[in-house]
Amino acid sequence: APSYKEAYVEGMRKLRAEHSIEVIATGDMDLVGTMQRNWIEECGEEAGISAYLPLWQAERGACLRRLLAEGFVVVFSCVKS
User: Fold this and answer.
1) pLDDT (tens digit, 9 = 90+) per residue, 25-34?
2) Model confidence over 8-64: pLDDT tens digits?
3) Contacts of 29 (CB under 8 A, 6+ apart)
4) What does pTM read for this prediction?
């Protein structure tokens, strides 16, 4: 069976082939855990898809304040300590 990463890259390749996807945008803000670089960017390189990371290294407090001011409900899915 393929590894999680292999399956993810294959899924990205299918998106590129079936839907002409060239770029994937994510809300990633920083590296997680022991990562050396952004995982989506790394997988995308293998699949031939670019990663767009508009929030990369953004000031978190300012982003949160803006979301709350605009009425968004915020749910944290990953917190880096």
Assistant:
1) 998 888 888 8
2) 999 999 999 999 999 999 988 888 888 899 999 999 999 999 999 999 999 989 999
3) 55, 56, 57, 58, 60, 63
4) 0.76
Neighbours of 7 (CB within 10 A): 11
Paired tokens of 60: 């978190």
Length reported for the chain: 81
DSSP annotation string for 9-69: HHHHHHHHHHH---EEE----S--TT-SS-HHHHHHHHHT-EEE-TTTT--HHHHHHHHHH
Q: Is 28:40 a contact under the CB 8 Å cutoff?
A: yes
